[in-house]
Amino acid sequence: MEKVLSRLVLLMFAIVLAGSIFMNWPDAEVRTVDAQTSSSNSISSNSNAASPTPKVIDDFVPEFVGLPDFGEGDEAVTGASQAKLIDISEFQSPEEQWPSYSRDDLDVSSGETWLGLYASKGQLQLASTKVTRSPRKGYIGPGDQPSDWLKYERKGELFFLVKDIPELKPGKVTTLYRQPNKQQMADPKDYELSDGYRREFVLGQETYILRTSHGITRDGLKAVVLVLEKNGVSQVIDKNFHSPAEDRDIVGRLFWAGDLDGDGKLDLYTDWWNEKGSITTILHLSTYASDGDLIGRAATFSSSGC
């Protein structure tokens, strides 16, 4: 009898225990599902969160300090005040025989004689040519400005025209570099005056180095600069704004290098880069160098762009 009672007590205890487990099982399942749902939502929420914006690393290290402020003499020329320059190569089009310009950009009258830098059979020379301007009918250019054709009597590949620069005479010129025309365009690193650019030019017994670097203006603005060097003399000949957000800093482009004025020293033809579609080209001549400098601005040409 005692054994029967013991077995009966054990059976009743087992039934109570099983019922307790059964009653609590759904809650446990819900809690498990809730935990999984919470974890899933957390993952989903994290996957949709915006990635943090990568920080722009500016490794700017200035080599030159105390540069003139931007706009302070940036377009000043040391050449004769009446000196004129018209760029041709940047305004030529494969579809057109003659270049055209916004009417207000041209300071030239029909019948004038200018001096042009021409390429002929691989040799560059300065040659006189008479120019004519006429309206480009039915065409409105950038900025809704009427345009004019500029025609010249001497045919051939023409880089630019100059007038009233007494140091320049007709004849062959020594050329150390010329940018290929648009149909034969080379690697931009060859002529683009951007970060890391460095090129040597040997003229006679002298070696010139043209390179880019960085500097700071007197008002504290960062700048990318174009430097010309010879025999330990360094001259900043142009500058542009430093932009750490861009892939690289750029001053402009090199179109031509050589001896244009015949004094045995390096001359350059470059432009200044901008984002507005306008063009500013610069003729640097050694004969217009200030005291202690290697080169000076003889003339500039600017187009209005868009």
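(ticket continues) Second input and output from the same batch:
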Amino acid sequence: MVRPAPCLTRFPAGCLALLVAVGCGEPAKQGTAAGDGAAAAVSGCISADTTAVALAVRDYIGKALPTPQRYLSAAGTDSAVPEDGFKVLQEKGPTYFYGGDSASHRKIREKLASVGPYASLLVIYKGTTETDGGNAVTVQLAGQYVGGEHEGKRAPLKRYAMRCDSTRWTIAATTVDSAP
């Protein structure tokens, strides 16, 4: 005879809620919203998560000299900052899409000039490389100032070695290339 779990006989409503909350102890199905959330909760960090990119972008723009006051992302190209990184740019200041053609460039430069002579940094995403089964990611970022007195000045290429400490992404090391 199979006996019910002790919590079912003493606290059936609470136990049922607990079983539902943990999915009755079965692993979540991959590819479902519940499965994705459960996988993230179990592993803490997942390589598909762009939180590592957001941390790298925050550090990159926070240490850029001259200090940027506006930000640009290369829209519609593989150099565009991923969504989490773009949100960081938006949190830090006015953010613009810098299109891929000369007409778009001219329009945005006119807009930047009309607003004022603030340092405007185009953040260039150079990609990520995953290692250690997804527990380590290298994020590469570069930059270039657009308009104003810093026109054309390049910000260095930086490689951020990101590690998952089982609960969150952290910057383990930063390498700066002198020539972007």
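Agent notes: The longest strand covers residues 120-131. The mean pLDDT is 78. Closing as not reproducible unless the customer responds.
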